[in-house]
Input
Amino acid sequence: MGSAMASGAGAISSTLQEHRVFPAVAARELGFDSWHVSSLAEYKRLHKRSLEDPEGFWSSEARKLSWFAMWDRVLEWNAPDAKWFVGGKTNACYNCVDRHVQAGYGDEVALIWEGEPVGPRTSHVAPGSAYSKEPQVRTLTYRALQQEVSRFANVLKRLGVRKGDIVTIYMPMVPELAIAMLACARIGAAHSVIFGGFAPHAITERAMDAHSKVIITADGGWRRGEVVKLQVNVEEAVRSLANNGHIVNHVVVLRHTGHDAPSARFATGAGVEGAVATKMHWWHEELARVSDACPCESMDSEDMLFLLYTSGSTGKPKGIVHTTGGYLTFVQTTCKLTFNMQPGTGQVFWCSADIGWVTGHSYVLYGPLMNRVPTLLYEGAPNFPTMEGGKGDRFWEIIARHKVTQFYTAPTAIRTFMKWGDDLPARHDLSSLKILGTVGEPINPEAWIWYNQHIGGGRCPIVDTYWQTETGGHICTPLPGATPTKPGSCTMPMLGIDAAVVNEAGEELEANKGGLFVIRKPWPGMLRGVYGNRERFVSNYWGRVKDPATGMPYYFSADGARRDEDGYFWVQGRIDDVIKVSGHLLGTMEVESALVSHPAVAEAAVVGMPHDIKGNAICAFVTLRPNWLIAHKRAPDEALKKELAQHVAKEVGALARPDQVRFTESLPKTRSGKIMRRLLRDIAAGVEKITQDTTTLEDFSVVSRLRADEE
Ligand code: 6R9
Output
């Protein structure tokens, strides 16, 4: 690896010029006993075989789970509908928890929780004052997890939750979030987790779409010493749900921040203010009413395990459906291979993603637990307590203290760490690390190299994992020990994944030609649908590209990609109207509808613009209502821009707050009335020459006016 490093670190500006190759290392060099796949030749052989006989490959992987009844058929494929392990019976919670207890590992650590260093929960001090440096840690063994999950499962049952129901969860990163999800899985209810950074409106629309009758939340979550008031958001959502004719029966509230006097908020069983039919319950009070014995429900392999909403190119988020047997198989296998998981060998796995995103579902919760490797959950921010200049070294301190062996984070975080300087990680002993992962967006080679050198000490393989909410788990990634890596490339397909770069006609493209990223065969972790919207499922994912020979649909990921002469994939990013902001997927339409819900706004168009840290930032072009401005004695000024940005944050969530709001008299449109987004993207990026053909513009002058508005 040293010699590869010598070839000009720091001089790379574009992935297209990136030619460095980092060879895979021997397991012993890193202190592993072995690799699951230990050479490129072995990977290639296994991959080839897995595509020749996918059913053979996946059924041997599925056998590594515990089943209550074996399947009759491995796969039923009526494109685009796949059923995996048909007739098989299993349970997700059983595979994550109970089977380990039964096998005698009940006293092993399952979960390590690290909270903000704030001392006792109820004596939180105000920001700016001295914080206790005492770490707040809680560890749960498999046995403890089994008891807590069973107890909470009984709470859910008592509140009327039945097999097949969908429970909405809106919680901070605390062990109880994992407990709530596993409790749902235990009794056969699907969970629908909503990221705690989303605004009340997101809860309303998702709970409505999922027909959720029960919501689990917490009084609040900690974020840089401030309380994020989750329960207040849920109450607001419940009220607007009631106004829309959807009554949520129960809200269970975990007392976590304790920022309100517990009695002031509510008494268990009281109705929500403004929605009295919805009853509130304290988590701890409900627990006291039930036993900790609760059997795992026997679930059909194709029963829904969870719904997870993701942004699409229309304003309404899509409820991605994942089922039980296939998802578990895919996540267990990918987690094991990508991170070389080996139970009982002292590994500690930390994925810094929030459980509210798919990365958290698959690689904070299900993947590590199934593989019996302790998983670390961190509630706080990387820069709290905050150092001078807003910097922080919390992540490195946590890695050193818990002796984390595999660390998994996002490029946007890595770029932030780079900006904070090399000396922060250098202060900590990171020698426990063996594998580093990245996910969420393409990683720029500069960030890759920095991660490799300053976090991985030049010795840890980096796994750049490309995948989506819809794919359930990794579809392209290096396997450490097998795949030589190239900074910025997610390298090769996962075993069992038939990935290709094709043109619109479905023909595989020659090396280095940009095209569409598709998967040509079904895989166990693939989405089974968009909840309640068959049409969206079929047209979004399966409607664009077909096998030119057979006419069978291919799965299209909505990403552009190229494959180089060595067969390495380079993902170039989304080609639909969604943007990855700091690794979080956002629909431009969601932001636009938030903007037009402000009375000052007539029309809005939102595009992504390149950003050093976030990857992409949001730029909003807005036309205003002159009458409103006059009536309210307002001007199109900085104050109004700020107000609009704040409005978006309130309506959607802070992550959707535009970096730039630009006023314009009209938006550039084609004759058919479509907003010319590519043109706006160029303008937002400050591209000098307008590269788009503008002859179809309805209003030519609009282009020059937009450009004149550049700040
Ligand atoms: C896991 C996750 C999916 C979109 C995907 C792509 C982008 C994710 C990537 C990557 C390049 C990687 N993406 N990982 N692009 N290299 N390693 O992020 O799921 O939130 O559904 O987003 O993220 O554009 O289509 P999700």
